[in-house]
Design brief:
The protein has 213 residues and is α/β, with parallel strands linked by helices. The protein has 2 domains: 96 residues, 3-Layer(aba) Sandwich (Collagenase (Catalytic Domain)); 84 residues, Collagenase (Catalytic Domain), CATH 3.40.390.10. It is 24% helix and 16% strand. Helix 2 crosses helix 3. The longest helix is centred in the N-terminal third of the chain and has 17 residues. This is Metalloendopeptidase. It comes from Cuerna arida. Its cofactor is Zn(2+). Its EC number is 3.4.24.-. It holds the Pfam family Astacin.
Length: 213
């Protein structure tokens, strides 16, 4: 038990799911974006509502790209699936929202948080203290999406079942059975949050403090 406590203490000191390398972060917490013409008026409004959740609840400011911006999040629907690069990669980077599959507030917020520099919650290095992965229910091609990351930053924020970046229990199941189970009653609704959680906001603000340059 003492050894387990020691391991848990070490894991908590290394709680991670955000990019460590500052080159992946957006200078001054300002994120230029463009919305392509793939979207209807209603879809575009939904994207703006998701952006406003960040602009009103965190230190980050998404803003329409200007002619002087070189690094831009291009929000479009030219590809299949809902996905984004993690953090700033330089130049124009895609954030894809397949229509109509990805047109839901929580999905858009999820992808925007990836663009800020955060990975999924369930791949944190300390996740085994909070969930059990059921590898037998995950297709071989998807198992890499459940591998723990070892080079990320957690900003001293504990594991968050309510994170907008947490998978739901049957996400990517190959047989209809859960891909993970929670080790705490707190995880009963993991993966079903519609908005940024309080811990999401805390992590974002620690990655992008108001003094960040």
């Amino acid at each position: 038990w003492d050894k387990e406590l020691s391991i848990l203490k070490e894991a908590r000191q290394r709680m991670r799911n955000g990019k460590v390398d500052p080159t992946y972060r957006w200078p001054n917490g300002r994120v230029p974006y463009e919305i392509t013409n793939h979207f209807s008026e209603n879809d575009t409004e939904m994207i703006h509502e998701a952006i406003m959740e960040f602009n009103t609840r965190t230190n980050v400011r998404f803003h329409l790209a200007e002619s002087t911006d070189n690094d831009i999040v291009m929000i479009g629907s030219a590809h299949t699936g809902c996905w984004s690069y993690v953090g700033k990669i330089g130049g124009e980077q895609n954030l894809n929202l397949e229509i109509p599959r990805c047109m839901a507030h929580y999905i858009i917020v999820h992808e925007l948080m990836h663009a800020l520099g955060f990975h999924h919650e369930h791949v944190r290095i300390d996740r085994d203290f909070y969930i059990t992965i059921h590898w037998e229910n995950i297709a071989e091609k998807n198992k890499r999406l459940f591998e723990k990351l070892t080079d990320e930053e957690g900003f001293d924020v504990e594991y968050d079942y309510d994170s907008i970046l947490h998978y739901a229990p049957h996400e990517l199941s190959c047989n209809g059975q859960p891909t993970f189970s929670s080790l705490s009653p707190d995880g009963a609704n993991a993966g079903y949050n519609y908005h940024l959680s309080e811990k999401d906001i805390l992590k974002i603000n620690r990655m992008y403090p108001r003094s960040y340059k």
